[in-house]
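Suppose a classmate hands you a notebook page containing two proteins, each written out with its sequence and a corresponding row of structure tokens. How would you begin to make sense of it? This section walks through that situation. The first entry is reproduced here exactly as it would appear on such a page.
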Amino acid sequence: MQGAAWIGLLRRIPPALHDSLVLMTTTGFEIVLHRLIRLDRDFLVALGRLSGSTDQPKLLIIPYLQMTYLSFNKKMDDAEIDSVLGRPGTTPSPAERPTAARYQSARPEDDFEVIEFPKETPAVAAVAQEKLAAEQADSDGKGQKAQPPSKTILLARLRQRLADDIAKPPSR
């Protein structure tokens, strides 16, 4: 895929789904993206980490030529898929559709418009958290397993039980 095609695809993905993207490179590294920062003519700038690590996200600059494929690491319903890809037979809006002349010209730098994604504000983060909580509440009622209690709650229960046992008089 050429850079213009990657740019066109990445522009269609809503910012709320950026943290669920996984990118595979030609060298076989799988990168978990946390946030897209910028789409330039030849490379993508993002925050991410290598898959399988628990490192803090780092600034990554990835050339489009090194990208093999993208995937989403979460289950998506049909509405979300349609919001990203559009329905078959429909054409993307001019804002979503990169023009060949715009991205594949003979490299005059002033013809290219760098695409920057807005930083997440606290209000946007709160809305995203509410949406995630609502999705989880919806999915809880659909026969999925309940989440285990947190370690803090379990420790509090254990301490209470031990305190109750100490307070009881010994039985004979």
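The notebook's second entry, a different protein, reads as follows.
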Amino acid sequence: MKRRSTTKNDYEPVRRSRSHVAASKIAGRNCPIKDQSRQATNRHSEAERRVVEDKNPILDPMLNNSTRNGSATTFLKHGHLFSFVALFLFTLILYTRPAEFYPSPLTASIALLVGIVTLGLFVPTQFALEGKLTASLREVKLLMLFVVTALLSIPLAIDPMQAWTEFSGTFVRTVIIFIVIVNAVRTEMRLKALLILAIGTALWLSLGAIDDYRLGLLTVEGYRVGGRGSGIFGNSNDMALYLVTMIPITIAMLLSSRGPISKLGFGACSLLMIAAVVVTYSRGGFVGLIVALSFLVWKAGPRHKSTILVVGFVIVVGFVLVAPGGYALRLASIMIPSLDPVGSADARRGELFRSLYVALRHPILGIGMGNYAPQMSYRGLVTHNSYTQIAAEMGIAALVCYTTFIVTPFKKLGQIARETFSSSSNSHLYYLAVGLQASLLGYLVCSFFASVAYLWYVYYLVGYAVCLRRLYESETGREVVVEKRKTEKKHGMFDSPIIAKTSGVAPT
């Protein structure tokens, strides 16, 4: 099908390789209807030959459409510039929380006002561009099912008013902003702007935590630094969780950067964030950090073995040198709760089993959002586990929606990483995909030790992952479909998506 000259892509190209440009020109040539089948075959063969020669995983869009789903990719118009500006401003206010540092009527309501403006700009623009409120994405559908389950659980909650307060507070705002993110972030520059803002926030938190430790301001249990303010970073464990999710993205930026200054800057930011996680004494943060960094080394190592070894050595040595006294004992209390001087490990273990019991007793719709701590906990504590939090308060079906909402983009990022692994021109896509995978994995681990299912963290991470996937799909002209990985008998994994496609085996 010939594309109309007035049609615009919905995304700016991530990076168009020479082979992709050539393949696109071939795909755009007119041909008589009687020769369409023969010329389409020749066009696909020429595109395959060029891509295989350049070892570029970006395929001919028409080839991908015909072989994947037999339908053309939908191309949308540029838009949402003002929606994105409002979204960026809202995110800046969310992270910096000016009301906590400069109390006034204006700062107290500025986040709500900017959120309303963001929604007011987004809705008419989205309908004008696409004729519907949101793109049809699996993550959006899963989130909507999660919202429906939450609404159904409210009338049956032990305290319906408490459940409604929890639903209509931060949670519903995270849902709205997620919808805005996945639809308004339509260019690589916009995605990078949000990521740089998130990294800058993590750096600010890290410097503050390290400075507090240096000054002896250990406000948590007498030996731990506290968070910042009373919002999403007010708890030291929650702040550590946020830092753990930002460290892999920062390292991915380091690996994809080409200039020595940018590499040095991202490297320094990564080390400062790791040091900040240490001074929080967060056990969940430590476990999540180890898992996320191990995954990142495993995936990114084949490309930069020397860099990974040097950075890993510096991190290990620095960790040993700066680890505060008693940190090893704190980590040992994960396995031996009696080593915890304040007994928090035993308390959390008790709440874990209690919340599992509540979830098994109320498997359909739970006891209502926000009802566990005041109604079922022996000590008035939250579950300290996002999965049992959802299972106990919203039911098993909601837990399935929640975990699938996170796992789905994780798998699709893996497919992008496999398709861009052998392409040096798209290495930035590979590293960012792997970095976001590591961040999601870090969240999955850290959230096992924190009740953060209704807060902002994961919704921004999944939003970043969806935006990267849509950018990649717009560039390649095809939908990212998770394929099963198979091994080749003689040569191991396939390196070329073209070869894998003709052989019926997924690319590595």
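A careful reader of the second entry would note: The longest helix spans residues 188-215.
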